[in-house]
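Fold this sequence, please.
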Amino acid sequence: MSIKAQGSNNNSNKLEWFEEARFGMFVHWGLYSLLGGSYQGRTMPDTTLANGNSWYAEWIQQRLEIPMDDYKALAPRFNPKDFNADEWIGLAKQAGMKYFVITAKHHDGFALWNSDVSDFDIGATALKDRDILGELVAACRKHGLRYGFYYSHWQDWEHPQGAVPFWHSPRRATDFEVYWKQKCLPQVKELIERYDPDLLWFDTWDNEAKELITAERRDELISLIRSLSKKCLINGRIAMHDPGDDIDFREMMDNAYPQDMQSKPWQTPATMNHTWAYHGNDFNWKSSGEMLRYLVSNASKGGNYLLNIGPKADGTLPLPGVRRLQEMGAWLLANGEAIYATEVASNLRGTQDVVFTQKKLEGDRQAIYAHIMGDAVDNKLTITLAKNVDTCQLLDTGEILHFSNAGGDIVIELPKRARYDTSIRVIKIITRQQGIY
């Protein structure tokens, strides 16, 4: 069962790539990367400041109370001499990722392209003569990845009428409208007309944005995008409190993994450690095995996994993140057919230790993939399934596995785990379609 988008913008063709992709790279990169989570002797999280208790290094200007003029003065220092778009996207491809999303403008208001409506952008840096986003788009096209941009349409701390965090006095709707017309809408238009993205990633959470991102503004922004692009997907965090019916996919909260099926295509945005942007003191790296289990679990429920890495200010990627992405890519090299372009195995109930995906094959055959996330008791896997099973094999090696019928269940005998092996094992079960239902 493939979950297709519902609502007034039900265009399955433009959503097909997203539903098949399952795995994408998220990048948070900007002026905040220069600071790496620390400023003038303070390091995030800083519990001595009223709002400093956060690992999110991209929030450093607000969390560590940096005056905006001082923060804007960082722009001439932003000189990522080692930035190489082809290396970034090449790593994403090696990791098995199928799409790429970067923070074209985060809440600090700094734009990674030379905008016609703001001077707080890449034109104020040493890279003023380079088109960073254009280089990334070219690399995505070269390596066959879809691409999109994160754009902070609600909070913008640099614009005098942009929204600010809750601990400040809220913007009046009439003042916010100035920012909305002067900066937000024109910059979204620039991104689409210059770079033709496959998706735009907007950011709100809970009900905090509801007074400013009204249904009228939400629909105005959606209408603008639809008028400029027939392919550009829009995420539900454009107005998480009230996304409406014309979004293309749901966006979970940060590092949130739903237990239930969703009515639209969906994804989880997730971090490798605590932060999104580079933080020089955040050593809380998740293992590749943990992150693969999030990917597999989401795929079993018809969802995607958008995994973030925060590049350093010089344009290089932190080695702990690179290593983990390469490890995940190695697993996907052998087991990717059980992830990409799969459907929800709706007739099989997963557990914490075993989840399922499935895929139609030629004729009346079907492949069911059992992802074994933990240890199997007695090296056996028991599945309640119809009897018409043709073959079972370990996907990684192709080893054919013996199976038997036991009271309507299929009992598969698994090879003994190799020493120190903690990887997810995938069993490919070939069955006749009519034998499943």
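The mean pLDDT is 94. Residues 269 and 306 are 5 Å apart (CA to CA).
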